[in-house]
Write a structure and sequence with these properties.
The structure holds two protein chains of two kinds. Chain A is mainly β. In chain A, 0% of the residues lie in helices and 55% in strands. By secondary structure, chain B is mainly β. Chain B is globular, with a radius of gyration of 13 Å. The chains are: A mainly beta, B mainly beta. At the A-B interface, strand 5 and strand 10 of A face strand 4, strand 5 and strand 10 of B.
Chain lengths: 121, 112
């Protein structure tokens, strides 16, 4: 069974940093692209970042470019999102989602339960 | 960025009746390989999103056959043939052709 479990959310002050993790199991992690998607309280969904299966390709929404860094450790089956210079508008539930297997293009066939990031002083 | 526009944003439906949601993109979603990466997601209250449809019309495993997707180019539709109580939630279209991938605003389906 495919499982994605996010962790690392919490309360952080504006300008602060936080690292989110997503532990994957039930599939060959190293073969799949992975994505981060967020949802502000009571709002819609927004794609934040994506990374290719081998980590060689990374993509960011304009709203987080230069402040967030996506990475992965295929030996640990774990996806990361390093978040810096956090702003009030970054407050959201952050979901990791599975992308496509190598050579294919797919978005979000499996999602985690999400982790809440609260940005407040 | 590609703008995805859904309508309606609110959809009251009687149990057993059909429902339809439209999603229009600001540019063609046909990828260079000829595929069209238009997805539909359901988000039930308090839950993570769940993908229902990928590449316009392909149902994900376990998705009831009352859900169907259609369309091409810039104009897409999600149809529910007979709405059931468990279908209550917000439905989003997502384009995965152009980065950044973008969602529609969401359509809230409720039972009348």
């Amino acid at each position: 069974e495919v499982q994605l479990v996010e962790s690392g959310g919490g309360l952080v002050q504006p300008g602060g940093s936080l690292r989110l993790s997503c532990a994957a199991s039930g599939f060959t992690f190293r073969s799949y692209a992975m994505h981060w998607v967020r949802q502000a309280p009571g709002k819609g969904l927004e794609y934040v970042s994506a990374i290719s299966s081998n980590g060689g390709g990374t993509f960011y929404a304009n709203s987080v470019k230069g402040r967030f860094t996506i990475s992965r450790d295929n030996s640990k089956n774990t996806l990361y999102l390093q978040m810096g210079s956090l702003r009030a508008e970054d407050m959201a539930v952050y979901y990791c989602a599975r992308g496509g297997i190598v050579g294919t293009r797919s978005q979000g066939d499996y999602w985690g339960q999400g982790t809440l990031v609260t940005v407040s002083s | 960025d590609v703008v995805m526009t859904q309508s309606p944003l609110s959809l009251p439906v009687t149990l057993g009746q059909p429902a339809s949601i439209s999603c229009r993109s600001s540019q063609s979603l046909v990828y260079s390989d000829g595929n069209t990466f238009l997805n539909w997601f359901q988000q039930r209250p308090g839950q993570s999103p769940r993908r229902l449809i990928y590449e316009v019309s392909n149902r994900d495993s376990g998705v009831p056959d009352r859900f169907s997707g259609s369309g091409s180019g810039t104009d897409f539709t999600l149809k529910i043939s007979r709405v059931e109580a468990e279908d209550v939630g917000v439905y989003y279209c997502l384009q995965g052709t152009h980065w950044p991938y973008t969602f529609g605003q969401g359509t809230k389906l409720e039972i009348k």
